[in-house]
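Deliverable D2.4 — example input (structure tokens):
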């Protein structure tokens, strides 16, 4: 009887150990620009687990400033970033309309830092992860 119980239990344990952990999704919301005129939203999914978690996914940047004539301008792209369990630093890469930008922010009530794009002045960017 004990051998039968062990034989039936072993495949269950091996199945649990072999099944991948479900990927965690996060909602990212942010505001960029000196007046917060660009709203950033993204849904990112965890791609690697361990001490450093990596996330990536599609993003949308919408111009919400008062200067819009024909409705808000929208740009789409991709966001990739890493968050370390032991650090309050978030480093990200944005790819929007063929331009790759980098971001480095420190955690307080939000991640606060600057986004740097080639041939452009760095702009402030605040991000919240949910």
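Example output (designed residues):
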């Amino acid at each position: 009887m004990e051998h039968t119980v062990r034989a039936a239990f072993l495949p269950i344990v091996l199945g649990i150990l072999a099944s991948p952990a479900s990927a965690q999704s996060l909602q990212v919301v942010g505001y960029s620009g000196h007046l917060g005129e660009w709203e950033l939203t993204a849904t990112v999914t965890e791609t690697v687990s361990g001490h450093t978690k990596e996330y990536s996914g599609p993003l949308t940047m919408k111009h919400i400033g008062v200067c819009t004539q024909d409705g808000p301008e929208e740009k789409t792209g991709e966001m990739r970033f890493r968050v370390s369990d032991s650090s309050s630093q978030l480093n990200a890469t944005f790819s929007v309309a063929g331009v790759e930008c980098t971001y480095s922010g420190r955690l307080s009530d939000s991640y606060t830092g600057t986004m740097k794009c080639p041939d452009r002045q760095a702009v402030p960017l605040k991000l919240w992860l949910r």
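The chain has one domain: 22-129.
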